[in-house]
């Protein structure tokens, strides 16, 4: 029998999942000495490889055979970035084709090492990994790259479709797993789930895979016990298996940063992307503005808003007269990597912002962690993707929510109602966004003398402290996330969890 301990990891084919899986692999490897194999399709493995700046001999990246065109995907498309919304379900369904290659990979490990891996850690959307684990003599642990509240809301709504059954005149409904007073609204549902009836492609995939993930022998959650105590308790009650809260899966240096000046390598490792502006230029621009005065705007790597919303946002930013950095991409319906057309913005807007130094428009990608950690950044207008939420709270930056897809509206709801660190501007791409509305919300959040602005900043700063305490690893002083990770490692090493 081999003596080396091995863990196989299977992330969803999306950047917002691949990077946290790699971060988790590094943490497990450093704390256990296990060999970690991350398996995915060739282009996603190449992407992960591009984010690794120095050799990591005990973390192996393995390509699984995959041809996107066999599944109705455009050529050379293997993840969700730049994929039209109507083809996202094809990507999810294509993951089923990875079952046989995964089994072959694990059989190869058994043949070489004389024993199966300790476990498979699979994405919450890869419930099929449970069957692979059973067939190969190991166990499966589900990893959700989102927070507990968002994961529970997303999973429960897909599994139960509660909005199709009991909905009141105001459009509100209850969700199994949440208390009766915590009501959700139909506008918080992406149109795929709003229109789902249980027989459509989305329902069939989500209900099958999430149900199978519920049967894993444990869950890992990218969150912090002290930040989401209620969400974690509700998720534990719902899933009824051990849940280890091991977040935030951010580069360790980010959680030590007091202010950003020389951290450009963090963003490169985090994103594996080339920013549309140099980090140095960005920091220089931020240095020219006063403390907590800048609004940072970004909708994540694969989201964008409508042309009229883009116009409304630009008008509101100019009216608010607050300095801002806006990661700007073409609106929905256009090539997200294309050029910005003048008609999408007020006439002369970009020139005026540049001359007055009020606004910095960044095309494609910005060094987000450096911006959020800078002393001048006072608020983050965000789509409320979980990675962005963790990055913002880890730096004590309050948020302005504009959720667009996936579980983002549920994250936004929690940030507003349970945490008090955000105000929601709007949601989705269908609504009208008026400039005056944008100005009002920015003024409210950025007003250092206003009660709301002060309270949001105070609560965000408290969460910053909780997040940093959770990853403390100082001899006997171990934070809750470090303890949870050690408990997980021990559980799989000594086979304390059963299928």
What's the short version?
This protein is of the alpha/beta class and 499 residues long. The protein has 19 helices and 17 strands.
Mean pLDDT: 92
Q: How large is the share of residues in beta strands? A: 5-15%
Which structural class is indicated by helix and strand composition?
A: alpha/beta
Strand segment tally: 17
> In whole angstroms, how far apart are the ends?
22 Å
What is the oligomeric state here?
A: single chain
How would you characterize this protein structure?
The protein has 499 residues and is of the alpha/beta class. Helix content is 42%, strand content 14%. The strands form four sheets. The chain has a seven-stranded parallel β-sheet with strand order 3-2-1-4-5-8-9, sandwiched between helices. It has a six-stranded parallel β-sheet with strand order 12-11-10-13-14-15, with helices on both faces. A two-stranded antiparallel ribbon has the order 6-7. Helix 9 links the parallel strand 8 (219-221) and strand 9. Helix 6 (148-160) packs parallel to helix 9. It is globular. The two termini are 22 Å apart. The relative contact order is 0.11. The model is unreliable at 259-265 and 267-271 (pLDDT under 50).
Please name the defining characteristics of this protein.
alpha/beta, 499 residues, 19 helices, seven-stranded parallel beta sheet, 42% helix, six-stranded parallel beta sheet
């Amino acid at each position: 029998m081999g003596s080396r301990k091995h863990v196989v990891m299977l992330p969803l084919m999306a950047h917002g999942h691949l990077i946290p899986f790699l971060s988790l692999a590094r943490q497990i490897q450093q704390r256990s000495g296990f060999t970690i194999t991350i398996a995915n399709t060739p282009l996603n493995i190449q992407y992960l490889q591009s984010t690794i700046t120095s050799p990591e001999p005990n973390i192996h990246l393995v390509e699984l055979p995959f041809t996107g065109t066999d599944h109705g995907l455009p050529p050379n498309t293997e993840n969700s970035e730049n994929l039209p919304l109507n083809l996202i379900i094809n990507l999810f369904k294509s993951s089923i084709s990875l079952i046989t290659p995964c089994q072959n990979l694990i059989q190869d490990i058994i043949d070489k090492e004389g024993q199966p891996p300790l476990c498979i850690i699979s994405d919450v959307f890869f419930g099929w990994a449970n069957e692979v684990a059973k067939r190969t003599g190991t166990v499966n642990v589900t990893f959700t790259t989102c927070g507990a509240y968002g994961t529970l809301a997303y999973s429960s709504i897909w599994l139960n479709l509660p909005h199709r059954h009991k909905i009141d005149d105001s459009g509100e409904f209850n969700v199994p797993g949440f208390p009766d007073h915590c009501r959700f609204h139909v506008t918080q549902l992406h149109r795929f789930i709003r229109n789902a009836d249980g027989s459509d492609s989305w329902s069939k995939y989500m209900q099958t895979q999430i149900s199978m993930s519920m049967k894993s022998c444990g869950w890992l959650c990218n969150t912090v016990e002290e930040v989401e105590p209620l969400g974690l308790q509700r998720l534990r009650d719902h899933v009824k298996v051990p849940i280890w809260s091991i977040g935030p899966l951010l580069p360790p240096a980010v959680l030590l940063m007091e202010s950003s000046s020389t951290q450009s390598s963090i963003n490169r490792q985090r994103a594996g992307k080339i920013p549309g502006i140099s980090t140095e230029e960005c920091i220089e621009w931020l240095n020219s503005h006063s403390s907590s005065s800048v609004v940072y705007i970004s909708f994540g790597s694969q989201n964008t808003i409508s042309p009229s919303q883009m116009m409304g946002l630009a008008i509101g930013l100019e009216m608010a007269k607050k300095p801002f950095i806006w990661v700007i991409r073409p609106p929905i319906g256009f090539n997200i990597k294309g050029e910005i057309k003048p008609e999408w913005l007020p006439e002369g807007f970009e020139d005026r912002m540049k001359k007055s130094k009020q606004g910095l428009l960044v095309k494609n990608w910005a060094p987000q962690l450096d911006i959020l950690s800078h002393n001048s950044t006072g608020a983050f207008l965000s789509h409320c993707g979980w990675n962005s939420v963790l990055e913002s709270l880890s730096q004590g930056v309050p948020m302005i929510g504009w959720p667009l897809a996936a579980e983002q509206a549920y994250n936004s709801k929690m940030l507003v109602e349970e945490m008090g660190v955000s105000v929601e501007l709007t949601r989705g791409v269908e609504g009208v966004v008026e400039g005056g509305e944008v100005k009002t919300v920015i003024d409210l959040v950025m007003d250092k003398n206003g009660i709301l602005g002060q309270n949001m900043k105070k609560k965000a700063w408290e969460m910053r402290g909780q997040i940093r305490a959770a990853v403390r690893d100082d001899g006997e002083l171990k934070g809750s996330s470090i303890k949870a990770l050690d408990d997980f490692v021990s559980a799989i090493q000594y086979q304390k969890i059963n299928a």
